[in-house]
Amino acid sequence: MESKVVTVLYFAAASTATGLTSEKISIPDDGLKLSDLTEVLNQHHEGKGLKGIIETSQWSVDLEMVEDPDRVLLRGGEEVGIICPVSGG
Length: 89
Known about the structure:
alpha+beta, 7 strands, single chain, MOCS2A, Beta-grasp_dom_sf, 5-stranded mixed beta sheet, two-stranded antiparallel ribbon, 89 residues
């Protein structure tokens, strides 16, 4: 049986920290709360400062911005974006 995965898209500082623009992350068969994805990604990219970046960022799931990550259950197949704050000038 194939494990469930989500595709994580990294933008701006998150991309710089991980050295990636995207990657597939396995999640439990019973799903994973979006808010818990921070810890999964932090463990996967330990020592790269990703947790601090995520804490100041917003999430998107399938191109929709997420207001409350605690209320979103990932079931596999979703595209999750880490949208970092950007400054303009």
